[in-house]
Amino acid sequence: MASDPPRPATIRDVARLSGVSIATVTRTFQDSPRVRPETGARVRAAAERLGYRPDSVAQALVRGRSNTIGLLIPSLMQAYWSEVADEIEHRAGERGYSLVLASSRGEPEREHAMLDMLYGKRVDGVIVGGVAGNPDTWPSAGSRSPLVLIEWDATPQWERLRELTERPLGRSAWALAEQRIAGSWFAHLSADDIAGSTLVARHLLDKGHTRIAFLIGPPVRTYLLRLLGTRSAVEEAGHALAGVAADEDTFEGGRAMATKLLGAPQRPTALVCCSDVIAVGAVRAAHELGLDVPGDVSVVGYDDIELAAYLDPPLTTLRNPKRELGDLALDLVLSGREGTAGPIVERLTGELIVRGSTAPPREVGAPAAAGAS
Questions:
Q1: Which of 86, 169, 303, 308 fits as disulfide partner to 315, beta carbons 3.0 to 4.6 Å?
Q2: Claim to verify: residue 79 and residue 147 sit in the same structural domain
Q3: What is the pLDDT of residues 308-342, one digit of tens each?
């Protein structure tokens, strides 16, 4: 008959082996100056021998801090958010903090549950990327656990998409950029998507493109702002968008949208994609149709995920300030923890990275060579 598993070591076992009181063991793991170094060393040696690990939640309750930061992102599989998470984890480690990572999967109910879980672990602050639900309904740990949002309003707005594609750009469209999240939240950070998409559009216009189409994933606020900036810049140059297609924010979604747009009798000469993931699918579609990128069609992405530089041809893209957003979010959480910062709203500027997927259209000047930039 199988024997029962060994009983986990307790604080009482550590006290007995090291010859001290339970209170001394507790003070040792709280790094109390009241414990002499030689006593502390004996306690830690006993704990190591027994395989004892102090209860981090209980320690957090006593000390008022856990040296952990909660990070809630839409998906562990999305390249953009995984790169943001990597930066935050790296920076947190440098400052003596560990990260508790969770995924909302873009579901408001799960987002709420994951926030409950993070607060239950007594994290010292929470960073939420790509908000899925309504923060007014979220649980709160109060000012002792500050909250920072990176982007917000990840709910698809289909009526707003129709407005931005079918109607003249008016005050209502531009009001989208000035919206603020409801509630008294600690901080909201975002990239300046209108400025970034304007850079992308002007890059293509400067190369002579006049038939520019836009590929958008589910019309969440971030992607709608990228559409708004692109359309505004194209119209300011005296042209109209050559088409707008919407699908999933996936490789296959990009492939399907590009196949549809590039199969039109008057196909666009340039595709602006709301994400690099969609752009990868668009390049695949162009190749399947026998089109050269960038000779027959230029393709631009957005975010500059690691894959972008390794695509064939390497992808021209708007580099979102992922590292800067992660750094600032962590700084704000920690400064909020110390009570030294207040609510802010801040937009960070991205950078256009020109690679081999864009060139002048063939009808402007000499034929474009594959890989030209």
A1: 308
A2: yes
A3: 999 999 999 999 888 888 888 888 888 775 444 45
Total tally of structural domains belonging to the chain: 2
Q: Are residues 72 and 46 in the same domain?
A: no
Q: Give CA–CA dist 19/25, Å, rounded.
A: 10
Instruction: Looking at the structure, tell me whether residues 118 and 86 fall in a common domain.
Output: yes
Q: How far, in Å, CA of 283 to CA of 286, rounded? A: 5
Is 213:242 a contact under the CB 8 Å cutoff?
A: yes
CATH code where residue 16 lies: 1.10.260.40
Cα distance between residue 242 and residue 70, in whole Å? 43
pLDDT tens per residue across span 62-91: 555 678 899 999 888 888 888 889 889 988
Helix residue ranges, H only, the chain:
11-18, 22-29, 37-50, 56-63, 79-94, 108-120, 158-166, 171-178, 193-206, 221-236, 251-262, 276-288, 322-337
* Domain range enclosing 40: 11-54
CA distance 202 to 277: 22
